[in-house]
């Protein structure tokens, strides 16, 4: 858990003659930046011999789950808010905790761990449900999780720190990180053609190889933004008929900027890092992306 929070830069908005004008309210935060890290505190645990669900920090917007059955089998975990979409994850079978966001906000959640029997058949190992009341709505999108996995020692964090060290507001940091990712990471066509279901991005590997698929782009940028205290959602959904990943970002004073956009000083532009990098902001792709109506979100991580 984090004992102190970064005070976000405020982005003031006023209407002048029917046009939005943006003014930066700078924040001189003298406190050292903290990277929030999930912890299996052990104070509230639901378990049996096959699985353990640590719900000690659900008020911070995450749970931690591990399989303890000892079998060398495929394990899955489903996290679902009552009446909402079910999030299905692959879970390691080594007895190590993994972190999953409570991305759908407050409400009653169920968490179920499954063990593979044969083929596509799974049996229930353990299931539990509990009520969630998140004390800070941004927490699920500031902490690392299975899809956006980073810590204070990650190279992605070091690069983000270097890129933003002379910047004093979140809007400038957002723009700097965006341009770095689209300028330095190339789309990996071969990987896109061979990637298997359940693939998990590795942000430092993406930095090292300087290439990746859409999920790698989005995970890297999301990790870098979160490391700077900027709430960010890695979104998985559809662009037209294509399964894709992009980013939504929270700007204080504006709110959530959906469909992953950035502000270029005059207007908001779509910030989808894969399309921007692959097509170098071509007029054709920008026309397709447009105001984001071609984007349909399914999951938020």
From TrEMBL:
<dbReference type="Pfam" id="PF01841">
    <property type="entry name" value="Transglut_core"/>
</dbReference>
<feature type="domain" description="Transglutaminase-like">
    <location>
        <begin position="206"/>
        <end position="267"/>
    </location>
</feature>
<dbReference type="InterPro" id="IPR002931">
    <property type="entry name" value="Transglutaminase-like"/>
</dbReference>
<dbReference type="InterPro" id="IPR038765">
    <property type="entry name" value="Papain-like_cys_pep_sf"/>
</dbReference>
<protein>
    <submittedName>
        <fullName>Transglutaminase domain-containing protein</fullName>
    </submittedName>
</protein>
């Amino acid at each position: 858990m984090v004992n102190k929070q970064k005070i976000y830069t405020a982005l003031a908005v006023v209407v002048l003659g029917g046009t939005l004008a943006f003014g930066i309210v700078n924040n001189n935060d003298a406190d050292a930046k903290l990277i929030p890290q999930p912890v299996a505190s052990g104070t509230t645990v639901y378990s049996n011999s096959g699985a353990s669900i640590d719900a000690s920090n659900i008020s911070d917007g995450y749970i931690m789950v591990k399989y303890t059955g000892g079998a060398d089998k495929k394990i899955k975990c489903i996290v679902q808010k009552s009446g909402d979409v079910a999030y299905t994850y692959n879970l390691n079978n080594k007895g190590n905790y993994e972190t999953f966001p409570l991305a759908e906000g407050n409400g009653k959640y169920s968490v179920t761990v499954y063990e593979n029997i044969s083929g596509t058949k799974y049996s229930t190992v353990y299931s539990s449900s509990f009520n969630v009341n998140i004390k800070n709505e941004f927490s699920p999108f500031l902490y690392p999780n299975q899809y956006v996995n980073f810590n204070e020692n990650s190279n992605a964090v070091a690069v983000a720190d270097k890129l933003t060290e002379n910047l004093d507001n979140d809007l400038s940091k957002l723009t700097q990180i965006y341009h770095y990712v689209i300028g330095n990471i190339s789309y990996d066509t071969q990987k896109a053609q061979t990637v298997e279901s359940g693939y998990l991005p590795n942000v430092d590997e993406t930095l090292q190889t300087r290439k990746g698929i859409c999920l790698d782009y989005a995970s890297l940028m999301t990790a870098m933004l979160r490391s700077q205290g900027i709430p960010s959602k890695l979104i998985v959904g559809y662009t037209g008929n294509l399964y894709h990943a992009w980013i939504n970002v929270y700007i204080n004073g504006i709110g959530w900027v959906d469909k992953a956009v950035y502000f270029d000083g005059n207007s908001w532009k779509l910030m989808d890092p894969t399309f921007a990098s692959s097509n170098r902001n071509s007029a054709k792709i920008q026309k397709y992306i447009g105001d984001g109506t071609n984007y349909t979100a399914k999951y938020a991580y």
